[in-house]
Amino acid sequence: MPKMHLKRQPHAKGIFHNDRRTPRVSWSTFLRHPVASIKSYLGIGVVVPARYFTGAFAVLLSIIVLCLPSAYAVEGPGPTADVLGETDGKTVITVTGADTHHDSGKLLLVTVNASGVPGYPVTNAETLFAWLDPNHTVMPQEAVVPVGQSAEEYQRESEQEMTSSQDAAAAAALAYAATLGVNADGVNVTMHVDDIGGPSAGMMYALGLIDKLTAANETGGATIAGTGTMDKSGKVGAIGGIRLKMIGAKRDGATWFLAPESNCDEVVGHVPDGLRDVKVATLDEAYQALAAIGEGKGDTLAHCTVK
């Protein structure tokens, strides 16, 4: 009984080597036998050793794993918005019942782009690339959002936090403006920024409203960014992602950054070159810092320091 060969013999000289290494195809052979050359190069009709199948399967499995949803959340620098101007063709802070004044500079609220949270999935591949990028942070999802939270619940919570933040900022700003001689009676305020949630823009909303209600050119033409929650009493509170927010501020032209004093331990050592941080704990401190920057006296303001 004739023996069955496990490997077919070459049928065109120069297509295969008789060992088990990757077949080589010469240019002259390809021109004479194009179909056979392609088949031989791809291994069609040739029994491939098991180790090659194992390697191919491992590669395929790795690709599949990288394409699966990640159990981690990824954050990076998000967009900024000038609270003294417009976004998406709409005025960020609209005031009725009082005169408003133009400022030649910008007051930027800053944000963080978050993926891997409900409604915004991220793949393992994206997580890996973010982990390698110093301008992104990667953390377990449960450290960012409650386990089991739905996309609808996440969106609703973010919107509620933003609305509450705007209401508190408006109340604190109107009360502070009154101390500056502004008649705040009958003033109505609406604030608008699409696709941004959470409470961390409160301080910048408050500063923007005061700036609009006062005749002074507080910024002096500078681009000033900042972050921090704001309660109705005028206290500035801590926020998350401040390192990434400073990166976004510098990217969009800010030269000054107002940071909550309670976030100073995360600020120190992470301020981008060309950006000057200023620590603030209250709306009054934030406004006085804003005015000092506008008057060219910002260098006298306190930096964040490690306690």
Overview of the molecule:
- With 307 residues, this protein is an alpha/beta fold.
- 36% of the residues lie in helices and 18% in strands.
- The chain has helices at residues 27-32, 34-42, 50-67, 124-132, 151-179, 202-213, 242-251, 264-267, 283-294; strands spanning 72-82, 86-87, 90-91, 93-96, 106-115, 137-140, 188-191, 223-226, 229-230, 236-237, 256-260, 276-280.
- The strands form four sheets. It has a six-stranded mixed β-sheet with strand order 6-1-5-8-11-12. Strands 2-3 form a two-stranded antiparallel ribbon.
- A hairpin with a 5-residue loop joins strand 9 (229-230) and strand 10.
- Helix 5 runs parallel beside helix 6 (202-213).
- The longest helix is centred in the middle third of the chain and has 29 residues, at 151-179.
- It is elongated, with a radius of gyration of 30 Å.
- The model is unreliable at 1-22 (pLDDT under 50).
